[in-house]
Structure formats: C-alpha cells, structure tokens
Design brief:
Helices cover 48% and strands 13% of the residues. With 194 residues, it is an alpha/beta fold.
C-alpha cells in the first residue's frame, strides 16, 4: 500500500469534507507518534467545527464494535487499532453492525494498514480513496512554500484570498479540493463547507 502523503490539517479537512455515515478514513502514522497525531487531529477537527471523540480500541472486536456504536453521530478517532489478521477478518465479517454509523478515523501504523488491506477488504472499501500517510515533519510546508502554493492557487483560479474567503462565507465556493486547501493555507479551515 502506497497512499498519498498529507499533513494533519489537510487530513482534518478531508475528514470533514467526506464525513458521511459509515465512512472510514485511515491515517497511517508511526506508532510512536500516534498519541501526538491524535491530539493534533482532534484539535484540528474541533477547530473546523467537527465533533470528534477519541476511542481507544478494545482488546476484542465485539468490544470495539460496541464502542463505535455508542459513539453516536460524532466522528470517532480510533487509537490502538493494532489488530492481528484474524481480528481484522472478524471485524470485516461483523461490519454490517457499523453501517450507517458516524464516520470512523483509524490512526494506524503501516503494518496495521497492511493487515487491514489483506484481511478486511470490505472495511478497506469503506475507506475507498481515503487512506493517507502522514508526511514526515521535514516534508511539511515552510512559510515560503505556503506562500508559493497560495500564489499558484491565485494564479490558477484568478481569484484573490479575500474573494475565496467571501465565496466560502456565502457558501458559493467550488467543491474542488484545491479550495479547501486554499482556505486551510489561509488559516480559515473554519469556512470549509461540510
């Protein structure tokens, strides 16, 4: 599995843009960084108007399903989802119990993602194209790179930052992901329409 790389802020925007009932989104992050990543992701989602809750995965699949079902309508960020292949198969077999529930964000390492892909194809299909890998710190945008990207967006769409913000405030902004990125780069993720 070789998913596209993303930052926590970009991933949070994607979560809210795609937050349909029953959706799964996956963010691959090294095991040692997952606690920090979950804290930052929770903060980003809350700042963008989401209502995230963090669930630490139960040791057994039935317990995990019960936790997710109890989550109600809130976006569930699942930590500790280090299942073996057999547990992924059991979760996949019981997936109908999760249908129509709030979106689930799984923060897992590469090994767990590989097990999920091999053992839980139906759960993976719920994620569809929403499997991403966290960009390492050294690959994140510097201020100069952010400015360059904003300039490229302005040139490509022939709009100013103020015009994009106004369109977002009036709910007239294009649904293209570039506009969500634009708002995030401007620090206006609160205007990303869900």
């Amino acid at each position: 599995m070789n998913p596209p790389r993303t930052t926590i802020a970009e991933f949070a925007s994607r979560v809210l843009l795609r937050a349909n009932d029953g959706d799964w989104l996956v963010l691959m992050a090294p095991a040692l960084e997952q606690s920090r990543v979950i804290d930052e992701l929770t903060g980003e989602l809350a700042q963008l108007g989401g209502l995230p809750q963090v669930i630490h995965a139960a040791a057994d699949v039935r317990g995990l399903i019960a936790q997710l079902v109890q989550g109600g309508t809130h976006i569930s960020i699942v930590s500790g989802l280090d299942l073996d292949s057999e547990a992924w198969r059991r979760l996949d077999a019981m997936r109908s119990r999760l249908g129509g529930r709030a979106p689930v964000v799984a923060v897992i390492d590469r090994a767990s993602a590989d097990k999920m892909a091999a053992s839980a194809p139906n759960i993976l299909s719920w994620a569809g194209g929403a499997v991403f890998e966290l960009q390492p710190e050294e690959e994140r945008l510097s201020q100069a790179e952010r400015d360059d990207r904003l300039t490229a967006l302005r040139d490509a769409f022939g709009l100013t930052d103020a015009e994009v913000i106004k369109q977002a405030q009036e709910h007239l902004i294009s649904p293209e992901p570039e506009f969500s990125e634009w708002l995030a780069l401007l620090g206006r993720g609160d205007l990303i329409d869900r």
